[in-house]
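Long-time lurker. I teach an intro course on protein structure, and each term I like to show students one example going from raw sequence to a predicted 3D structure in token notation. This year I'd like something fresh instead of my usual example. Would anyone be willing to generate the tokens for the chain below so I can use it in lecture? Attribution to the forum is fine with me.
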Amino acid sequence: MVLLVLLAVGLAFFGITAPIFYGLLAGLVMPVVVSMRLHQLAEKSLVVIPKQLTHWTVYVQGIPVQETRNSLTNPCFAIGDQLQTFFWRAFFLKFVIQAGALLMLLLQLWPFSDIWVVLGGGLLVGIWLWVKCVDTGKTLASVKNQTWVVEEVRSAMDSLWYRADFSRQGQRIAALEKLLAL
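-- Reply from a regular --
Happy to contribute to a lecture. Here you go:
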């Protein structure tokens, strides 16, 4: 990740801002939008977000202060169809952001005459964005065809909730974690 950030900043000096555009949208704007939408659904009692507390040590003017924060975890939906709709829309938005960043990169690289910038940084970022687009496309297909893992979770009051995971190469990845990954 550090290498990609340095590459994005280096390419920005040449006027190629697509990697920074992607990083800001996918890494900052999208998690905020998803979090706000989940909060709205939680207020309507359509979603339950399990509490996962994390403990942090924050230094305020050199004094260590213990702080407890609530981390966003994989949500549980009351209705299975709503689970699928939420994640399909969210992954489609992610795909649009990735495809837009890839198109922006191609448009920014096209008029370049310095072949080393195009081959060096631009090609590397282009391949990375292409791989991300393909992965998100496969994820969209999994959501649409319902080939992902939907788990039924019973609450303490015996109500039924649905939570989604993806199974890739024998590992289970939470749907929200996959959605918010760069």
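Some talking points for your students: The chain has one domain: 2-180. Residues 2-180 form one domain.
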